[in-house]
Amino acid sequence: MAADSEPESEVFEITDFTTASEWERFISKIEEVLNDWKLIGISSGKPLEKGVYTTGAWEEKSDEISFADFRFSVTHHYLVQEPGDRDGREEGVEDALPLPMQDLLCMNNDFPPRAHCLVRWYGLREFVVIAPAANNDAVLSESKCNLLLSSVSIALGNTGCQVPLFVQIHQKWRRMYVGECQGPGVRTDFEMVHLRKAPSQYTHLSGLLDVFKSKIGCPLTPLPPVSMAIRLTYVLQDWQQYFWPQQPPDIDALVGGEVGGLEFGKLPFGACEDPISELHLATTWPHLTEGIIVDNDVYSDLDPIQAPQWSVRVRKADNPQCLLGDFLNEFFKLCHRKESTDEILGRSAFEEDGKEVADISHALSKLTEPAPVPIHKLSVTNMVHSAKKKIRKHRGVDESPLNNEVLNTILLNLFSQFKSAPSDSLTYKLALCLCMINFYHGGVKGVAHLWQEFVLEMRYRWENNYLIPGLANGPPDLRCCLLHQKLQMLNCCIERKKARDEGKRGNVSDRSPSGSSGDTGRGADHSGDNLKEADKEVGKSWESWSDSEEEFFECLSDAEDLKGNGQENGKKGGAKEGSRDPVSLKPEGRLHPHGKLTLLHPGEPLYIPITQEPAPMTEDLLEEQSEVLAKLGTSAEGAHLRARMQSACLLSDMESFKAANPGCCLEDFVRWYSPRDYIEEEVVDEKGNVVIKGELSARMKIPSNMWVEAWETAKPVPARRQKRLFDDTREAEKVLHYLAVQKPADLARHLLPCVIHAAVLKVKEEEVLEDISSVKKIIKQIISHSSKVLRFPNPEDKKLEEIIAQIMSVEAIIARARSLKAKFGVEKCENEEEKEDLQRCPCPYATWCILYAHLSNHLFTLTESSDEVTNFVPHFPLIFLSCIELNLSISAMPPLDEELRRSGSAEERRFTAGSVLDFPPPTGREIVLRTTVPSPAPYSKALPQRMYSVLTKEDFRLAGAFSADTTFF
Amino acid sequence: MDEDVLTTLKILIIGESGVGKSSLLLRFTDDTFDPELAATIGVDFKVKTISVDGNKAKLAIWDTAGQERFRTLTPSYYRGAQGVILVYDVTRRDTFVKLDNWLNELETYCTRNDIVKMLVGNKIDKENREVDRNEGLKFARKHSMLFIEASAKTCDGVQCAFEELVEKIIQTPGLWESESQNKGVKLSNREEGHGGGACGGYCSML
């Protein structure tokens, strides 16, 4: 210790430490820690405000020190105070009592609902605890305990620290602490008694008063009055099943084939267990003076009904199992599964196929690992079909994760609900179904199975021209998830194929027999006009961009018969294409006349042609395409190439236009297509008449600009005979392949936004029923949070977890509110049935129900930070009593006898008004006794003395803080 | 140079055919004017890095064709744009009247609602003006847009228009931060994807 006072003499310090005993070193370490935490000096602060222990924030700091090789943890617990309060530590008045001693007497924070036990027992705002670091270590022997206490005492004395210092002794679970607090000329000893069974004289107030007084050993007569605070706590925890907020779903009924349409479209909600674990009623006498009431072994004035302060506290179950949260979590876990569908459903299906069918492709698939890869190379249709057959054959009913009946119901359900709910998409429903399947029907296996069936169904629909229901018409909606876009894309393909096939049927003679659009297997190998290909063929001539014979609806072998009509405009195309009478050509593919416009030369009406629809795109295709376009760079050549790559649509429209308007010229086309590029002017001709003269805009007249170039190339071909701009066969195969290779994890990632969306809607729906303001706020946060997170592809797992956790917390809050409502269900006793239920309620605390009527508003604004509702209205018990009377007039209450509750039936019970008021013995009795007396001598300073006692069924504790004047002792 | 670029912004130029979208862009990127610029087919693309308030921003500018028929094609490129320049021709009232259609189009196809919009009245060098400056101002105010009159030919207002737009985008942090953040994520797994600025069109909730 000398070392501390002379830090400059380093040499001596070293010597000092070598000779110091372990004990001395231990003490100096304690001092060091106190120094580090700046706990030295006079502590001062404002008097404690009412309830600040509950509303304020508590913090703690920890460090570790050791006594020889025995490790202790030192922890400083303190109420966070405004900085201004702490500055006063140094300036405090010298002779004022240390703050902790003042706190002993403060009555503003008795019985805090949630606090460190030392706070509850001694009312301290700040203290340091030294406890064995290892959880199972304990300081047991008396001499060791004393040694520790002496160390504390010396450390406090050496440093002048005024913060109480406690040491934990005995096993940790006993929560035995002894400690000390020192101030200038004063000392408080904190002592404790902990017993399993209370001696009978300590079970009542008068006995405790005797102990307190003898402990003080006050020499004065008469003794200054002792102030008392008493709290009796009643705990209700064994709820009847009736009180459950929600019956758990009947899983057997679902599996048993009675899968209702509703079941699969909706997410479950609510807690599986009671989210309220206990309900506490505390009746408190916050301030009694000795002698006002009597409480001894034969008589007690402590009637809970008469208590001036009541509070109800709800204890929540820590992590109540909630259905929606479970659903979300399980589905989210799917995202991390590595297995492919084939791995899950058994690759053997494919392998055996190789033996049965002597097909080279299957042999290849057998050799190539992993399984999904060859599917891409070979005929997808073949593979999937044989796989389907195989799977059906291979897996018996028992083996199948989903039996056929369930599966059919699901699929039927998926497709059947669309008519009724067009706003709900297939994708959304699929997400919910998979969620459900994942939870109830075989987990990832079930998901894989359903997905496989789904993909087969999609293929079936494609091959047989059945549109997929439940999807908005038109091109993929880029605001939806990619999977949804893919399905929409597939639908576009089906739609076009259907239209084409129907057209073909009605027009057989017109069509070349080789029109092979129905051959699905072929499409995958096509190398059509997509942009990537185009990118490679940069150097090719204009024709190469548009010519790809096999892609034509119908190939025109003799192009000479249908030569272009470009010669009419007198440009160079005319020479190349030769000259023929354009009028002799039969117009084809007309949609309707374009207003009153006529062709410039023949004077025929100008017809708008039937044109090809541009290719629908999903966001990944679009991304690919814009990348290709962007990659061409910003040079003139790049721009030219880019324009050329995008001119397929222009060329197709020109061809359609030419076919519909034989004898037309580029001017005609421009008047329809880009009217602002045809400039009309009024001119006076030689006869003096005003005539309108038109010509192409300057930019259209640029020699060999792309429009002119395309016009010259365009042949008069109606849209239906043109090369398809959109190769539906190829696109459909691409989509189907994409779908087929999605692993359950991919699928879960695709659909998680839908599931979260559905969960939020569900939570919102449930919240509306309960109308809890705090929940409204959280839901708003969830929505804005998740819309931010889900906007981007591949959101981080951590953020997704946060969203799910938020949804779960909302679910738990709502479940708690429901549970409380159910428990206090009398409030809305409007219908007879409910009243009957209430009558049957065998709960001994049925009277609490009435409490609800008055506390309900509070109960439903419970927040996470405060779980206690206190009613300070002094006449509350009066209201309470009148409510009982009110309730009596409604129905006779069952007796409250504990034994009867367990056995007899409701009818046998008789209600008597008296028994309502007979509370059972309290679960906990807490008493705080306080006084200020001089100690040890009559002429010593008057100092705070305090004793807290708590008595429960199997635990009795006395915690005393006794101060003494040390000036002359 | 790419290293000190704060962010890459996607900007769109839309408007009726022949109002001078490509000319504006050409003036901005190459500082030239070509009276005989061919009509755009589909979409065109140019890049320019500019510095606004000391922040370098790389602009990927998508120029679109104004013809009715191309309109089924171009909206696909609206995705993920942070800024849009809506151009009309002050000498042709019909191009001004059609602005409402373009705004509707934007609303339908744009994946974000906080996109910064700028209205540009082009061709102020011409004498036969049909749309008064005040009309343009009024329209821009009504639809909370930036507004400027410009001439690609004389260079008036062009630079200014692009700079204003970029400044506004940078002042709207949610708009571009997420974009660059997204890019950062993409860099880490470069093998899989290419760096295209994608802000997905994912389902927005409720």
Rg of chain A, rounded, reads: 43 Å
Quantity of strands of chain A, as a count: 17
Helix content of chain A: 40-55%
Q: Characterize the largest beta sheet of chain B: strand count, sense, and whether it forms a barrel.
A: 6 strands, mixed
| Structural classification of chain A | alpha+beta
Average pLDDT rating of chain A: 69
In short:
The complex is a heterodimer of chains A (969) and B (206). With 969 residues, chain A is α+β, with helices and mostly antiparallel strands. Chain A has 40 helices and 17 strands.
Describe this entry's structure for a reader.
Chain B: Pfam families: Ras (PF00071). Chain B: Belongs to the small GTPase superfamily. Rab family. Chain B: It comes from Odontophorus gujanensis. The complex is a heterodimer of chains A (969) and B (206). Chain A is of the alpha+beta class and 969 residues long. Helix content of chain A is 44%, strand content 15%. Chain A is built from 40 helices and 17 strands. In chain A, β4 (165-169) and β5 form a beta hairpin. In chain A, α3 (22-36) packs across α8, α14 packs antiparallel against α15 and α34 packs antiparallel against α35. The longest helix of chain A has 27 residues, at 744-770. Mean pLDDT of chain A is 69; it is low at 9-16, 85-92, 240-262, 347-401, 410-423, 508-583, 826-831 and 834-917. Chain B has one domain (5-173): Rossmann fold, CATH 3.40.50. A 6-stranded mixed sheet of chain B has the order 2-3-1-4-5-6, sandwiched between helices. Chains A and B meet through α26, α27, α28, α30 and α33 of A and β2 and α6 of B.
